[in-house]
Amino acid sequence: MPKILIVEDDPQITKILKLNLKLSGFETDNAMTFQDAWQKINADHFDLLLLDIGLPDGNGLDLCQKVRESGNDVPIVFLSALTDEATVVKGIKNGADDYLRKPFGLEELKVRVNKFVKKIAPHLQVVKFGDLTIDPVKRVVTVMGEMITLGRKELDILTLLARKSGDIVTRENILSTLYENADLYDRTVDSHMSHLRRKIREVAGQTLQISSVYGLGYRLEWKA
Length: 224
Prior knowledge:
five-stranded parallel sheet; four-stranded antiparallel sheet; Rossmann fold; alpha/beta; 13 strands; 8 helices; 224 residues; Arc Repressor Mutant, subunit A
């Protein structure tokens, strides 16, 4: 079930949003402040953020930018009474995927939300590659029946490799999938890959490997 974080300081609006999203088949959580939202975003996995701009302890535009700078590419939709073009443009430039002006109809909101759910739906399916199983929703990985604890980006990289079922995945593909501004994060791939390989090796030894293919990229493969 897709999970949505509602960042809104008006309890009544939050209540209406949570009720209608639940009826539409979504799991929801909410935050009323910048800090609360930031903590939840880092502690949990969300498939969509509905973000107000005016928050008691900060600005939703800054929160959006902070989320993107952290490397998190979760879809973000602004819900705001600020309708001037400059604010809308800044929201998009800061990394938002959509901007919905208050007051809005619930049917319009549902259409916007479903647009992003369709994009994420294929990525909600459990991935299996030999004795490797990945549950993208629960963020759980098991290798040969043993659970592995991975960081967010490590899990995303492993999921991308597993979906390719042994085919080569280019470095550029990994960067573009994980980061909006790929050029800023090029060196972090090596770090994530090193940690990921070590954690897999601790469980599977040399049986499951992420192999480097010189000049091309990486490949996940089982060794006899």
